[in-house]
Amino acid sequence: MKRTKIKALLARTAPLENVLIKGWVRTRRDTKEFSFIEVNDGSCLASIQVIVDAGTPGAEFLPRISTGAAVAVTGEMVPSPGKGQAFEIRSRGLELVGTSQEAYPLQKKRHSDEFLRTIAHLRPRTNKYGAIMRIRSKTSHLIHRFFEEEGFFLIHTPIITGSDCEGAGEMFRITTVSGSTPASDDFFGQETNLTVSGQLSAEMMALALGDVYTFGPTFRAENSNTSRHAAEFWMLEPEMAFCDLTGNMDIAEALIKYVVQGVLESCAEDIALFANFVDKTLMKTLTSLRDDAYIRLSYADAVEILLKAKKPFDYPVSFGIDLQSEHERYLAEEHFKKPVFLYNYPKGIKPFYMRMNDDGETVAAMDLLVPRIGELIGGSQREEREDKLQERMQALNLPEADYWWYMDSRRFGSVPHSGFGLGFERLLMLLTGISNIRDVIAFPRTPGSIDF
RNA sequence: UCCCCAGUAGCUCAGUCGGCAGAGCAAGUGGCUGUUAACCACUUUGUCCGCGGUUCAAAUCCGUGCUGGGGAGCCA
Description:
- This protein has 452 residues and is α+β, with helices and mostly antiparallel strands.
- The chain folds into two domains: 6-98, CATH 2.40.50.140; 123-439, 2-Layer Sandwich (BirA Bifunctional Protein, domain 2).
- It has helices at residues 6-10, 113-118, 127-149, 199-209, 245-266, 268-277, 282-291, 299-308, 325-335, 386-395, 404-408, 424-432, and strands at residues 16-30, 34-40, 48-53, 70-79, 87-98, 153-154, 160-161, 173-174, 192-194, 211-219, 232-241, 295-298, 340-346, 362-370, 374-381, 417-423.
- Helix 5 packs across helix 7 (282-291).
- 37% of the residues are buried.
- The protein binds one RNA strand of 76 nucleotides through strand 1, strand 2, helix 2, strand 11 and strand 15.
């Protein structure tokens, strides 16, 4: 007999003669004549109630059917006489697939997020973490669907990279030799690292295929100890040929609206859990993300707003500074209370590949700031003019020879193009109201922490 | 890396002025009930984070280290 997922059973409106379910026991309650077993199989948030009458096949397992045990149940799905569920399964055969020992750490009550991080291998069995992982999966699919519908091609950019100055932060070295061996004797004959961004590769592909995106793991060896940084995270990086900064922001905004709508549609039960127990303002946030136009504000105008703000800042504001968290939060959370694209940043605080504006002072960069999270997206129109790019690289002391292939793209049919990077875990934090990045990724990697 | 806070039973936490180590939940046993974070009774559980110091006496005070959390910087 074929196993049916609990999600499919709970979607039914009619009884079912013969079913087989398999899952894990959330709780067992006994009466003299029969027992209630709450079974969850991960297919959805809800569990299904199983009734096991004394004397039916498998009832002898009941004393060992404890929280966390794995079971298989055959029986009939019937209308439930009790309150709290429309249907339940009356068991005709109970099988104990795997027992759960006394030391099972998940109890039938709420645990702290900090404790659950110490048992990351078991926390997906809780309502909250199961819900996060289902939303993560759905969001990932929605991203792919969005770009598929928009005519983008999915590209796979390298994880191992030889370039060490993409300007995105400290890198993890990878090597097959020990300490004193020179890099020239190493596997690749030079220093190699884990990627911090697929952007430069993506640009090459965009300049052939038009619109592309890469979506994969990214690594930063920064000693960042915050709730918004991980050493290994997933980044989405679209890159579009014949696209300027405005088009770049258009795609970013459309993408987020699409994903929010999709999650609200197909993860309603899981989202409701977060709206009820994690962040009471979540539904309001999500509908605003979906329905409201995002603010688009130049860096210069943002500085003006901050200078006029009555709120006292710890760090003074002036044109040319890199905005501090408190400034970004003020804009997104207090002044506008919605997502804000900031664009045209001073060249001094942005990397070499961003396109120089006509004023010679700012570059065509854009960041999307969102309430609670801060920077969700960082992107730019890329410098497509060979001479301007060379100027910037010289000013920043970047060896052009190392970028010979990148420079080639500006020599052979160079076109205006744009792209951005979106931190996938930060998007999930936005969608769920979860406040720590360690809780939206199954096995988080952060400084000093590599268990599991 | 910097600043602040915390670390006591499996979990969540209380522990007053330095004077015998506590509660709720979980777990175990028994009971009861179409139950549903079930309920009732009883029972078990400690390197008070580690190391050093002050003191007649330290969970409590001091120093130091480790771990965790919040914030900052860096960024996505």
